[in-house]
Specification:
Blueprint: E1 2-3, H1 28-47, H2 49-57, H3 107-131, H4 135-158, E2 172-174, E3 179-189, E4 194-203, E5 210-212, E6 217-225, H5 237-240, E7 243-250, E8 258-263, E9 270-273, E10 280-281, E11 286-291, E12 294-301, E13 306-308, E14 315-316, E15 322-326
Parallel strand pairs: 1-3
Antiparallel strand pairs: 2-15, 3-4, 3-14, 4-12, 5-11, 6-7, 6-10, 7-8, 8-12, 9-11, 13-15
Helix pairs in contact: 3-4
């Protein structure tokens, strides 16, 4: 049994002030998204004032907390965790993006990377079949084009958003991530009020990287820790890597908080979480994602009613695979 001693300073307590948008670690793509947003807002105000007026008329709530004008729902994408401002689905002309088979927070990566990879594939193919005459050179270039195309397909596969069937029986704790269970450890966690069980899931680049709520409940706090980018297979990555912790107060037994910890890896360097304290979650509801291979840790209260139903080595799917159950009929 591991004794964690005192609560970690990076554990969630309300909203960590270092979290200023849904991707606190920054990155090139989110920088491009913000730059595109500045240009788009200028264009809308200058050339589409009627559209802007119509969207503002149906906007709900105060956009306080967003560092720019909120003209339509796209302006809230990166700041959903900073404000209660929103549009009703029937008033949102971009709600269709949530129905795509790709996670919405990864669409920018898909667009940017596709704009780089697929023109390169076409260029290499053109050189191979229109410029080069030698069979060996043509074969090498064809292999290069096939490799680039494979990378493009892997990128699209990585950001997929498959639908999941969420189990509805009371007392269930479902997986917060897709991947392989690499650790199950009992520990003392003062933040959860005593004994707890820590379940660690490793996500490879081939897994779905959308994280989901393990139980229904209310978000109590969110904490953020900048850190290293060690290989997510290494145990010390749970302590030293960049990570974001979400504390959820379940609306069913055991009624003690649970923690979901999103942890980066050597390749995955971007954590996304669009929650804020006070948000209500349903079991299996998406709450964020980690871009590329990574690690997700779930910490749940341990008591006489808890039964762990997974084991080390198990392959699990977020929202649908059952990790544990609280059986109060015993």
């Amino acid at each position: 049994m591991k004794n964690v001693g005192q609560a970690r300073t990076d554990e969630p307590s309300a909203m960590d002030p270092r979290i200023r948008d849904i991707q606190p670690g920054g990155g090139v793509i989110i920088y491009l998204e913000k730059a595109w947003g500045r240009w788009r807002r200028w264009w809308l105000k200058r050339f589409r004032p009627r559209y802007v007026a119509r969207m503002l008329a149906c906007r709900q709530g105060d956009p306080q907390g967003v560092p720019h004008d909120v003209l339509d729902p796209r302006d809230l994408k990166l700041y959903r965790n900073q404000t209660d401002c929103h549009w009703q689905p029937e008033d949102d002309p971009f709600a269709w993006r949530d129905r795509l088979p790709f996670v919405r927070v990864g669409l920018a990566e898909l667009v940017v990377l596709s704009a780089v990879i697929w023109p390169l594939v076409l260029l290499v193919c053109w050189i191979a079949w229109q410029v080069v005459d030698g069979l060996i050179e043509r074969g090498i270039l064809t292999i290069v084009a096939a490799g680039l195309a494979g990378v493009g397909l892997i990128v699209a596969w990585f950001f997929r958003d498959p639908r999941r069937v969420i189990p509805t029986d009371p007392g269930l704790v479902v997986a917060p991530a897709d991947g392989k269970v690499v650790g199950i450890e009992r520990m003392e966690c003062p933040l959860l009020g005593g004994s707890a069980v820590e379940i660690t899931i490793f996500l490879s680049v081939f897994n779905v990287h959308i994280n989901r709520s393990p139980m229904a409940g209310r978000v109590k706090g969110i904490g953020y820790q900048p850190g290293k980018y060690l290989n997510a297979l290494r145990a010390e990555s749970s302590r030293e890597n960049e990570q974001l912790s979400i504390q959820i107060e379940p609306s069913e037994a055991p009624f003690r908080p649970v923690i979901v910890r999103q942890i980066t890896g050597a390749i995955a360097r971007r954590i996304v979480c669009w929650l804020k304290p006070g948000d209500i979650l349903q079991r299996g509801e998406p709450l964020g994602m980690i871009k590329l291979g990574s690690r997700t840790v779930l910490v749940i209260p341990d008591d006489n009613h808890l039964r762990i139903v997974t084991e080390i080595g198990s392959k699990v799917k977020a929202g649908s695979s059952i990790l544990a159950r609280y059986d109060h009929s015993r």
